[in-house]
TrEMBL record:
<dbReference type="Pfam" id="PF00155">
    <property type="entry name" value="Aminotran_1_2"/>
</dbReference>
<comment type="similarity">
    <text>Belongs to the class-II pyridoxal-phosphate-dependent aminotransferase family. Histidinol-phosphate aminotransferase subfamily.</text>
</comment>
<dbReference type="GO" id="GO:0004400">
    <property type="term" value="F:histidinol-phosphate transaminase activity"/>
</dbReference>
<dbReference type="GO" id="GO:0000105">
    <property type="term" value="P:L-histidine biosynthetic process"/>
</dbReference>
<dbReference type="InterPro" id="IPR004839">
    <property type="entry name" value="Aminotransferase_I/II_large"/>
</dbReference>
<dbReference type="InterPro" id="IPR015422">
    <property type="entry name" value="PyrdxlP-dep_Trfase_small"/>
</dbReference>
<comment type="subunit">
    <text>Homodimer.</text>
</comment>
<keyword id="KW-0663">Pyridoxal phosphate</keyword>
<keyword id="KW-0032">Aminotransferase</keyword>
<dbReference type="InterPro" id="IPR005861">
    <property type="entry name" value="HisP_aminotrans"/>
</dbReference>
<keyword id="KW-0028">Amino-acid biosynthesis</keyword>
<comment type="pathway">
    <text>Amino-acid biosynthesis; L-histidine biosynthesis; L-histidine from 5-phospho-alpha-D-ribose 1-diphosphate: step 7/9.</text>
</comment>
<feature type="modified residue" description="N6-(pyridoxal phosphate)lysine">
    <location>
        <position position="216"/>
    </location>
</feature>
<feature type="domain" description="Aminotransferase class I/classII large">
    <location>
        <begin position="43"/>
        <end position="351"/>
    </location>
</feature>
<dbReference type="GO" id="GO:0030170">
    <property type="term" value="F:pyridoxal phosphate binding"/>
</dbReference>
<protein>
    <recommendedName>
        <fullName>Histidinol-phosphate aminotransferase</fullName>
        <ecNumber>2.6.1.9</ecNumber>
    </recommendedName>
</protein>
<keyword id="KW-0368">Histidine biosynthesis</keyword>
Length: 361
């Protein structure tokens, strides 16, 4: 029995999910099986959306799998990685009783999905060291096993910390949790760092799950497409729980375009700009009065501590610049998270923090 089969909710063992008109493959030219409109809409001149979309379009899976270097059977496409997180919780946590483990400060959706499902959230905080935030791997393993948490969510590179976790540490942790927990590695910012994807480890571990998204480096946050990658048996279980038609037809087309060679070469250009700007911004902010610490980052953002974060936030807002206030997060009560913008936008951030900016109305 695989780790996922063991962790599958007892009440879903025999559950097959909704069987939609599109999930049974059929041949034909006159489609009268799904109660769609036979006449098109003015709002959809090319007919993209007249019919329900395929639940998991073969071409999309093939291209995404090639892009992330896994097999199509090892990948589930969904509405952003947010849906992936939610599916994992709903598939592998007993409602009102299950348990997930997170390492704060981290992405908020892991705890939100868990709470909505009535699952307990156990926190093993990151360690704030002079080298930046690091995972307490021993404590993660111990607490996961002790609490019988079915899911461990780690973010790599970390949001909001920008810190990374190397594949060696991930496979070691996965080995300790084998048979007991799924180790979910959220690589929303994977494109911006230098660490290899944990998707390479899928063959060797039946309990590693990797999340990727088109929302960040691919610049398609509004299309709401992300992927869960894991061994095929895990993906098959998640599919039973997913909505019948999760992907909107216009968005499927958009992602296929985003995976074409010219779009991928633009992707590489955008990533190069972010990495260059991140380095410049980090260096400039690190030298400023009033900046306590700008953490090194492998994401498209910087986490920065200030002597007076409230004043900086107000000054930025007055200049029309909106950054993420992190002060409500435990241990980050002096911190802001600043996304890397265009070179002009980043220069404006520095000017405002330096106190040299002209306030724009
Ligand atoms: C932005 C982000 C996501 C992306 O979520 P989508 O639903 O794919 O837009 C996932 N995980 C982390 C850590 C993020 O910061």
């Amino acid at each position: 029995m695989t780790t996922a089969e063991r962790l599958l909710r007892a009440d879903l063992r025999d559950f097959r999910g909704y069987v939609s008109a599109r999930s049974t493959r059929q041949e034909g030219s006159v489609w009268l099986n799904a109660n769609e409109s036979a006449l098109p809409s003015l709002a959809d001149p090319d007919g993209t959306s007249q019919r329900y979309p395929e639940p998991q379009p073969a071409e999309l899976l093939k291209r995404l799998a090639a892009h992330y270097q896994v097999e199509p059977t090892q990948l589930l496409a969904g509405r952003g990685s947010d849906e992936g997180i939610d599916l994992l919780v709903r598939t592998f946590c007993e409602p009102g009783d299950g348990c997930v483990l997170i390492a704060p400060p981290t992405f908020g959706m892991y705890a939100v999905s868990a709470k909505l499902h009535g699952a307990q959230v156990i926190e093993v905080p990151l360690l704030d060291t002079p080298r930046g935030f690091i995972h307490d791997l021993d404590a993660l393993a111990t607490h996961t096993l002790e609490a019988k948490a079915s899911l461990v969510f780690l973010c790599n590179p970390g949001n909001p910390t920008g810190a990374t976790l190397d594949p060696g540490a991930i496979s070691q942790l996965a080995r300790r949790l084998a048979g007991r927990s799924l180790l979910v590695i959220d690589e929303a910012y994977g494109e911006y760092g230098d660490v290899a994807s944990a998707s390479r480890l899928l063959g060797a571990h039946d309990n590693i799950v990797v999340l990727r998204t088109l929302s960040k480096a691919h610049a398609l946050a509004g299309a709401r497409i992300g992927c869960v990658m894991a061994q095929a048996s895990v993906i098959a279980l998640l599919r039973r729980v997913q909505a019948p038609y999760p992907l909107a037809a216009p968005c499927i087309g958009m992602v296929l375009k985003a995976l074409q060679p010219t779009a991928l070469s633009e992707l590489a250009d955008r990533i190069a700009v972010v990495r260059k700007e991140r380095k410049i911004l980090h260096k400039r902010l690190s030298g400023l009065d009033g900046v306590r610490c700008a953490y090194p980052s492998s994401g498209n953002f910087l986490l920065v501590r200030f002597d007076d974060a409230a004043a900086i936030l107000a000054r930025l807002l007055q200049a029309g610049i909106v950054v993420r206030d992190m002060r409500a997060y435990e241990g980050l009560d002096d911190a802001l998270r600043i996304s890397i913008g265009t070179p002009t936008e980043n220069a404006a951030v520095v000017a405002v923090i330096e106190g040299n900016a002209r306030v724009s109305a």
